[in-house]
Amino acid sequence: MGIRRHQIIYVISDAVLSIAAIFAAIWLRFEGHIPSYYMDFVSVHFIIAAVTIVLAGTIVGSYVNILEYISVEETFRQFFCAMFSGAVFLVIKYTHLLDRLPGMDGFHISGSITVIYCIFVLMLTMGVRLAPRLKRWLIVGYVKSKTHSRTIVIGAGKTGAMIIKRLRETLNEDGIYPVAAVDSDKSKRGLRIAGVPVAGNDDDIAALAKKYRATEAILAIPSIDPSVIPEIYEKCSEANLKLRIFRDTVDVDSFLVGNRAALKDVSIEDLLFRDSIQPDMTKVYDLLQGKTVLVTGGAGSIGSEICRQVLAHGCGKLIIFDIHENGLFEIDAELKEKFDTRQYELVVGSVRDVKRLDTVFAKYSPDLVLHAAAHKHVPMMELNPIEAIKNNIVGTRNVIETCIKHHTKRFLLISTDKAVRSTNIMGATKRMAELLVQTMNGNGCEMAAVRFGNVLGSNGSVIPTFKRQIAEGGPITVTHKDITRYFMTIPEAVSLVLTAGTIAKGGEVFILDMGRPIKIYDLACDLVRLSGLEPGKDIEIKVTGLRPGEKLYEELVQENEAVDTTSHEKIFVAKGAKPDKELLDKEIADIINAVEHGENDLLLRRMVFTAIADVENTIAPEAEA
C-alpha cells in the first residue's frame, strides 16, 4: 500500500525530536558549557539517536497507529524505543565500538547523558503522539457550541464507558457531549467514568439535567428489562430530556464502529413494554415445510405480515388471496425483492364468492389456510352491519366449507378481543366466526381461532391516526380519557398465529398473554412527546365521547370459557363445551335470509346478538380433568 503521509511525518518528527533530546541532555549535563571534545562529535550523537529511535519505532509499530485514538499501549511502545536507543549508546560506550574507526579517536559517551536523553526522548515523542488527543480533550472540555447536545448517560457500566469514550472522541461528528452519568450502583457515585462524573441514579435525572444544562439522555443498558423503559422515559420527559436508547448489544457494537443510526429514538413500542413473544420457530418450519399455504386478506396489514413470515419459514407455495388489487400490487412489489416470484401467486378474489374460492382451491389444493380477510373497523361496521355479516360470517363459512370440500388439512382464523362480550356488530360477527370454527372443526380439517387485541401500525389503527393528527398540528381525538386497549406488534401477532398452528388439535380458541392494557389517552400524550412537542400546549388532546358500539375496556375471555395453558408460556387456550351446530346453523340461516330480504340494520344487529346469546347459553365451561 506504500508509506502514508502521516507515517513519514512521524518518522521525521521522531528523528528531529531525538536529536533535540540528545543535544538537550548534553547541554544539561555540562550546564550549558559543552566541552569542545563533545562538540566535535555531537553530529555522531545525533545520527545514533535518530537512527535508533526510528529503527525501534519501526520494529514495534509506532508508525501504523491512528494517533487520535492511541491507547496506553503506545506509551509502552515509546518507552521501549527510548530504552532501545539508550541501550545502543551504552553498548557503544562500554564496547568502544566507534573508538577504533578513523577520525573517531576521542569520541566519548556519558552514562548520565544517556539517562537524561532517554527521559527527554520519551517525553518528546509521547508528547507529539498525545497532541491530537490533547486537542480533542480541550475541545470537549470547553465546548460551548449550541449545536452540541449536552447529554446524560444512563448506565455507568462497561457499555456506558465505551459510549462516553466514543462520544467524547467523535464530538464534531456526532454532536453529542456527555456531561454526566447516572447508575443505580451506589459504589460508583462520586467517581468518574471515561472522564464524566457519575452524579447519581435515575431518580436524580431532573436535578442533574438542570445542573448540567442537559438537553437529552442516552440509555446505555442494552440488557435492561423492557418494563423499566417507560419509567425512565417518564423521568426524562419531566426533565425535558429527549431519550435515546440502544435496544441491544448489536446496536451498541454498530454505534461504536461509526453507525450513528444505531442510537435510536424511543419508539411507542418501547413504551408499551410487552415482552416479545419468542415462539419455537423450528416447529413453524416443520408446519410449513414444502406446504401450500393460502392466506385470505393477504394484502392487509396482518395478512401481508403472515405472507412475509410464511415465505421466510419455508413454505412450498404461497397463495395470496385478496379482493384489494392495489394491496396485492404493493405486497408483490415488496416480496419480489426478497423471494423468488415462483414461490407465491397473487389471486384477486372475495371470500363471499363461493365459485371463485372453489376454483382457487381446486387449482392449488392448499394444505393450510390462514383466514385474515375480514371487515375490522368498529365505527364503519356500525354504519354497515350488512357488510360485516356478509364478510365476517358468510365469508368465513364459505372458506371453511371450501376447506372441507377440498380436504385442506388445517384452517386458522384471525379473531379479535372485540369478539368477547361484544357491544358492536364487528366484534359480534367475529364471535360468530369463532363459533363456526368450533362447530365445523373436523371432517378431515383441523380448525382453530387466534384471539388477540390491537396491533400497532395496522391500517386505520389508532397510532397511525394519532401520528397523522400530530403532523397536521392537532387536535388528537380520543373518545374517552379512561378508555384502555391491549396492544401488540404485527410480527408478534403473526408469530402467535403460526405458533398456534403448530399447537392446534382442532376446535381451540387461542389467546395471547398481552400484558397490561394501555390507556389510549396516555398513549396519545406519549406520541406527542416522542414528536418533540408538549401535549396540551403544542398539540391539543380532545375527548370526543365513546362511539356507537365502543367499550371502555376490552376483554380476552368469554364468561363461559375456562383458560388453560399451552406449551408456550405466552399462549393460552380458551376451553369450553362445543356449541350446538344445528342451532348455530339455524341462526345463521335466519340472519342470511333477513339480509337477502333487505331487513333494516337495527333488526339485523338484534338478530346477530340474539343468535350469539342463544348459542352461548348452550355452552358451559368444561369440567377440569
Fold and architecture overview:
This protein is elongated. The model has no long low-confidence stretch (mean pLDDT 83). The chain folds into three domains: 5-140, no CATH class; 151-266, NAD(P)-binding Rossmann-like Domain (Rossmann fold), CATH 3.40.50; 281-454 and 487-515 and 555-616, 3-Layer(aba) Sandwich (Rossmann fold), CATH 3.40.50.720. It is built from 23 helices and 22 strands. By secondary structure, the chain is α/β, with parallel strands linked by helices. The strands form five sheets. The protein has a nine-stranded mixed β-sheet, with helices on both faces. Strands 3-4-2-1-5-6-7 form a seven-stranded mixed β-sheet, sandwiched between helices. A two-stranded parallel ribbon has the order 14-17. 48% of the residues lie in helices and 15% in strands.
Q: Compute the number of structural domains.
A: 3
Please write the CATH class name of the largest domain: Alpha Beta
What proportion of the residues form beta strands (DSSP E)? 5-15%
What is the CATH homologous superfamily assignment of the largest domain?
NAD(P)-binding Rossmann-like Domain
Largest sheet: 9 strands, mixed
The oligomerization state is single chain
End-to-end separation in angstroms reads 76 Å
| Shape descriptor | elongated
Tell me the number of helical segments per DSSP (H or I, 4 or more residues long). Answer: 23
Share in helix: 40-55%
Give me the CATH architecture of the largest domain, please. 3-Layer(aba) Sandwich
* Strand neighbour order, sheet with most strands: 10-9-8-11-12-13-18-22-21
Q: Mean pLDDT, rounded to whole units?
A: 83
Structural class, from helix and strand content? alpha/beta
Radius of gyration (CA) equals 37 Å
Spans of at least 5 consecutive residues whose pLDDT stays below 50 are none
- What is the CATH third-level topology name of the largest domain? Rossmann fold
Find the count of extended strands (DSSP E, 2+ residues): 22
